[in-house]
Write a structure and sequence with these properties.
331 residues; 10 helices; nine-stranded mixed β-sheet; two-stranded antiparallel sheet; Protocatechuate 4,5-dioxygenase, Chain B; alpha/beta
């Protein structure tokens, strides 16, 4: 049978690639953002947010603190890298979201499993429409500086698909990346390769959730159920494999909602399914939608215990834009 031997949750924010001294670049991006989502689902511009809130986070967004926070985040990533390498997995199953990278809006499944021989990364077209300051060196942090190729896990992916279908989880599938210059895998997967796997040339099994783009976003309850079905399906598989399961993305952004994030992390650690499955759709918009990846992983963790967790709230502006950086490992 396939066994989940380690679970890892990690943010994959651009600030985890940038040095702390350059985090202000993202603050400038925030000031231009006209699609900031409150926890009740309302969309506001930065100017509207500032008029509504004032400057409640002025004390927490001192740029002089950014290098220290960057160091804390880097240390947390080092810990996760160590957990992953020590587990010696045969396959790394990554639950991520696709943001107009592999899939377009003309065909956007709620959940898809990739069963191809190779995971092919998208070379980012520059200049980037939002991250106008980004260059090829930056996108190397997401393995998106070149059309890189990494091994897939087709045998386990096919077996998982059959067993999920039998459990009523109707997944879409894809088995190739025919035109990587136009569409290929994106940052949620490349970050795991570059930062956590590094020189581990072991197969990746990508699961792609449409967390980001309405109207077919899976609910929190559905995500948790899918995670549980993934664990059951792997346990029944005749394929003998040690599996690392990784949730890529989150936590709250582009508004940092620290209380909300901590509630979710605590619920995952304590297996509080009532909390995890009752998170409203309105609270999972934009970047915060990637919390669905963590909830899906939580459903698959079974009896694994949380061995490490770190939460770093980052306020990039005085009105509270930023991100809740989350890092955790289960064994």
């Amino acid at each position: 049978m396939a066994r989940i031997t380690v679970g890892i949750g990690t943010s994959h924010s651009p600030i985890l690639i940038l040095p702390g001294a350059q985090w202000q670049r993202r603050a400038q991006d925030d000031l231009r953002n006209r699609s900031l989502y409150l926890l009740d689902g309302r969309k506001v511009s930065y100017d509207e947010l500032a008029a509504m809130r004032g400057t409640p986070y002025a004390a927490q967004n001192d740029p002089r603190d950014f290098p220290r926070l960057a160091g804390e985040a880097e240390a947390a990533l080092d810990r996760l890298e160590a957990y992953l390498h020590a587990a010696r997995p045969d396959v790394v199953l990554v639950i991520g979201d696709d943001q107009d990278e592999l899939f377009g809006h003309d065909n956007l499944p709620a959940i898809s499993i990739y069963r191809g021989e190779e995971v092919v990364m998208k070379e980012m077209d520059l200049p980037h429409p939002r991250l106008t300051w980004s260059d090829k060196e930056f996108w190397a942090g997401y393995a998106m500086d070149l059309p890189r190729r990494f091994p897939g896990a087709p045998a386990l992916a096919n077996d998982l698909i059959h067993r999920l279908i039998a459990r009523g989880v109707d997944v879409a599938t894809s088995n190739s990346v025919p035109d990587p210059e136009r569409r290929a895998f994106g940052h949620a997967y490349g970050f795991i390769y570059q930062r956590l796997m590094k020189n581990l040339r072991i197969p990746m099994l990508p699961i792609l959730l449409n967390t980001y783009f309405p109207p077919n976003n899976p609910t929190a309850s559905r995500c948790h159920h899918i995670g549980k079905c993934i664990a059951e399906a792997l346990a029944e598989s005749p394929i003998d494999a040690r599996v690392a399961i990784v949730a890529s993305g989150g936590l709250s952004h582009f508004l940092c909602e620290a209380e909300f994030d901590r509630k979710i992390l605590e619920a995952i650690k304590t297996r509080d399914t009532d909390v995890l499955t009752s998170i409203p759709q309105a609270s999972l918009c934009s970047g915060s939608s990637e919390i669905r990846n963590w909830i899906t992983m939580a459903g698959a963790l079974g009896d694994l215990k949380c061995e490490y967790d770190q939460y770093i709230p980052v306020y990039r502006t005085s009105a509270g834009t930023g991100i809740g950086l989350g890092f955790a490992a289960w064994q």
